[in-house]
């Protein structure tokens, strides 16, 4: 936006801290489930084994929820297709997809008998655990519509309300069961609601910060959102630990898991209240034709001389505000989508979600694995802070390249240590080095780039990129236990195979960054138009 001396440090930092609470809740909500999986299995799933009527009802509702969610995701991604392709092409793609998937969905899912087999039991448990990720996809898909209709700030307020509803409904799904369904299904719906809050916040929090911060510190400010995400994860690890400390398994299975979810009410309430006092972004005001309000906010963020110039730049960038999403060609779209995909395919959430199980697989006992999980969270936090201090000086591209190289070496090395059966201190060090490399690079820098690279006139593409990121997260989270527990792969590779896969993706991500990702350090958001127009020519 301006030179160092022309912007209001205190106001920008305050806005960043408040918006970053959305990131904290993002991390909090996605990680809270890790401490409750065992208790939820005992509370929700085990009773199905001894009650056929209850099991039959749960299966019918499970099929219904999956069907509704699938239709919702299909409609949203169909909408995105119409933004990219011509009407006839989009319709043809949708028809072909439906002709292939509907028969398969019916035969291999809907037509399954209402009998609780081992596979179906695991499917229900798995979906109950990961249902928030489905909500994340839906929430991120709505992000563009929400951002452009009610605004970035108001969209974050909506996400805060969703976090509150999810915390209450997940903690006491019986008391808040307004749907007339089983408690298990009520819990799943409230987790999806919370996931929608995460999806909205994951797009709008970095976008809100990016549109408020000056170019020379924008990377640092947006990276604070990633710092908040990993802080939320670390905080909830401690919250879960203190909730269950010294308690019996019976108490944890009946009440302890409830307190884990209810604890989210505190940060969600704080987020909601503080947002009420935050301004809307100047770019949203210009989008709605309210230039006076935009000028007023810019005057508070900058000295008057620079705010006039910035307002003129914003107005110019919105001259093509209704541009087709391919107005700047495919390069910007592909770069944005692949940044999101690679951030997940390097395997980070496997490490974060399954850390206790991974450590147990290395021969570590339960108590030690929980301590090492906290160490993972601490390393994640420390190196995210380092990224914040370096991203605006060192540059986005260099950090991504360094991260890819170190992650690739660490993951491949970890795979060989597991393959050779020499797990121990070396394996732990390799995992911590991997976490540090991700935290200083792909963790925060991906969000910085996603908030920067899309010109104002096609900013809605960020919703697709974020939705694809959550879809990639879901794919990786589901496929890890499949690969890690596959008898053939275990017999031949001794749990090392999946880590080689993630290491290979890390190497490929580095080549992608080297060849195709532009450096955006120091560029204004309005400069993005010229960057991609030049590339298209």
UniProtKB/TrEMBL annotation:
SUPFAM superfamilies linked: MFS general substrate transporter (SSF103473)
Location in the cell: Membrane
Topology with respect to the bilayer: Multi-pass membrane protein
Gene3D superfamilies, alphabetized: MFS general substrate transporter like domains (1.20.1250.20)
Transmembrane segments: 12-45, 65-82, 89-109, 124-143, 155-173, 188-210, 222-244, 256-278, 325-355, 367-387, 399-419, 425-449, 461-480, 500-517
Pfam families: Sugar_tr
PROSITE patterns: MFS (PS50850), SUGAR_TRANSPORT_1 (PS00216), SUGAR_TRANSPORT_2 (PS00217)
Keywords linked to the UniProt accession: Membrane, Transmembrane, Transmembrane helix, Transport
Keyword match Cell membrane: no
Ranges for domain Major facilitator superfamily (MFS) profile: 15-521
Source organism, top-level taxon: Bacteria
InterPro entries cross-referenced by the UniProt entry: MFS_dom, MFS_sugar_transport-like, MFS_Sugar_Transporter, MFS_trans_sf, Sugar/inositol_transpt, Sugar_transporter_CS
Sequence similarity: Belongs to the major facilitator superfamily. Sugar transporter (TC 2.A.1.1) family.
PANTHER family in UniProt: D-XYLOSE-PROTON SYMPORTER-LIKE 2
Protein name as annotated: D-xylose transporter XylE
Organism expressing this protein natively: Zunongwangia endophytica
């Amino acid at each position: 936006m301006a030179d160092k001396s022309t912007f209001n440090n205190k106001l920008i930092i305050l806005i960043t801290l408040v918006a970053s609470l959305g990131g904290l809740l993002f991390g909090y909500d996605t990680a809270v489930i890790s401490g409750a999986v065992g208790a939820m299995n005992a509370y929700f799933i085990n009773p199905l084994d001894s009650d056929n009527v209850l099991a039959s009802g749960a299966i019918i509702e499970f099929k219904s929820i999956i069907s509704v969610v699938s239709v919702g995701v299909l409609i949203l991604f169909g909408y995105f297709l119409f933004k990219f392709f011509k009407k006839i092409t989009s319709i043809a793609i949708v028809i072909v997809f439906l002709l292939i998937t509907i028969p398969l969905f019916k035969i291999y899912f809907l037509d399954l008998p209402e009998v609780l087999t081992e596979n179906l039991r695991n499917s229900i448990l798995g979906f109950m655990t990961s249902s928030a990720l489905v909500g994340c996809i839906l929430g991120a898909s709505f992000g563009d519509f929400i951002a452009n209709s009610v605004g970035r700030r108001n969209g974050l307020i909506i996400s805060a309300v969703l976090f509150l509803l999810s915390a209450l409904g997940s903690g006491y799904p019986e008391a808040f069961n307004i749907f007339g369904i089983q408690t298990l299904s009520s819990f799943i719906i409230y987790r999806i609601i919370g996931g929608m809050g995460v999806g909205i916040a994951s797009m709008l929090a970095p976008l809100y910060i990016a549109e408020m911060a000056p170019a020379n510190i924008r990377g640092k400010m947006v990276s604070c959102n990633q710092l908040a995400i990993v802080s939320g994860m670390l905080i909830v690890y401690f919250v879960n630990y203190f909730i269950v400390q010294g308690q019996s398994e019976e108490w944890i299975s009946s009440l302890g898991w409830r307190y884990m979810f209810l604890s989210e009410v505190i940060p969600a309430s704080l987020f909601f209240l503080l947002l009420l006092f935050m301004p809307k972004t100047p770019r949203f005001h210009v989008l709605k034709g309210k230039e006076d309000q935009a000028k007023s906010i810019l005057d508070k963020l900058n000295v008057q001389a620079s705010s006039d110039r910035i307002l003129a730049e914003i107005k110019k960038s919105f001259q093509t505000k209704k541009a087709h999403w391919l107005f700047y060609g495919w390069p910007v779209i592909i770069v944005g989508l692949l940044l999101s995909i690679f951030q997940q395919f390097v395997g980070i959430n496997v490490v974060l979600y399954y850390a206790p199980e991974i450590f147990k697989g290395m021969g570590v006992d339960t108590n030690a694995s929980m301590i090492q999980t906290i160490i993972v969270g601490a390393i994640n936090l420390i190196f995210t802070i380092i990224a914040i201090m370096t991203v605006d000086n060192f540059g986005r591209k260099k950090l991504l390249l360094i991260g890819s190289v170190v992650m690739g070496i660490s993951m491949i090395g970890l795979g060989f240590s597991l393959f050779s059966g020499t797990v121990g201190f070396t394996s732990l060090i390799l995992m911590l080095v991997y976490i540090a490399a991700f935290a200083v690079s792909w963790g925060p820098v991906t969000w910085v780039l996603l908030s920067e690279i899309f010109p104002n006139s096609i900013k809605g593409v960020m919703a697709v990129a974020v939705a694809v990121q959550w879809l990639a997260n879901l794919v990786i989270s589901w496929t890890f236990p499949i690969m890690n527990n596959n008898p053939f792969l275990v017999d031949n590779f001794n749990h090392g195979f999946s880590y080689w896969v993630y290491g290979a993706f890390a190497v490929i991500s580095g080549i992608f960054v080297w060849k195709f990702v532009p450096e955006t350090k120091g560029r204004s958001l309005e400069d993005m138009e010229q960057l991609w127009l030049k590339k298209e020519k």
